[in-house]
Structures are given as structure tokens and as C-alpha cells.
Amino acid sequence: MKRVITYGTFDLxxxxxxxxxxxxxxxxxxxxxxxxxxxxxxxxxxxxCYFSYAERKSLLExxxxxxxxxxxxNWDQKKEDCQQYHIDVFVMGDDxxxxxxxxxxxxxxxxxxxxxxEISTSRIKKDLHE
Length: 130
Ligand code: C2G
Prior knowledge:
By secondary structure, this protein is of the alpha/beta class.
């Protein structure tokens, strides 16, 4: 079984996220999403989520592409997660291009996928405020 992992905030889930998750799942048989906790988003990403971790987790768990959701609590857990969950493929959107190549040293395939243009959580928030 080929195991894939990806990380993110996934707030105000939108079709850009879905495009990423669908393509990530297509790279293997089992997709784990490491979902940023509220504390991590606030204290280390310096952002505010509209939906809580529990709400964001339930949305992801309802999706056919997602097999497991685990918490992302810090920037530095990826190496350990890949070992603990026997990950074969690590996937991120290409806005992160090159940031996680170090995972290749532990035999993990690192794949950066093109982002879906035009859509973003910040754009949704901005458009809804107008
Ligand atoms: N994404 C995308 N297209 C968009 C928006 C997002 O492909 N239009 C991808 C991002 O590249 C990322 C994933 O969807 O791979 C989740 O996006 P975010 O929730 O914005 O994730 P981010 O805040 O970048 O957190 O440790 C890694 C971080 O947790 C990533």
C-alpha cells in the first residue's frame, strides 16, 4: 500500500484544496492529511482560522480522498511523521517548492503540485468583506 501525506490549514475548504487532495490521493492508495491545529495556525502561522480544528477535521474526513487526519502542531514534525506513518510520498502545492526536499534523504518521494490559480482562503475572505 502506497502511503501519501500532505499538510495544511484547509480553512474555508475550497476547490483549490480539493484539487490538491485529489491529485495527492492519485499518487498512492492511502492519504493522510496533517491538519494545522488552531494553536499552530495562531502562534506560528500568525493567521486566524474561520473554522476550528474540529470543524476543519470533520470536513476533511468527509472527503472521499482523505483516509486519515492527524494534527500538525509545529513546522518540524514532518520527518518524524513520515517515519511513524511509513510514508512513501510527501505532497505539497508548489508554493512550497523546494522547502521539504530534505525528506528525500529518508527515502520519501517529495512532490510539489501546481496550485489551483485564482482561489485562496484569503481571497474568499476579502471578497466576502466587500
Ligand atoms: N493549495 C492549492 N491551490 C490553492 C490553494 C491551496 O493547491 N488555490 C494547496 C496548498 O499549496 C497546500 C494545500 O492546498 O498544499 C493546503 O493549503 P493551505 O491550507 O493554504 O496550507 P498552508 O497554510 O500553506 O500550510 O507545514 C505546511 C503548512 O501546514 C502548509
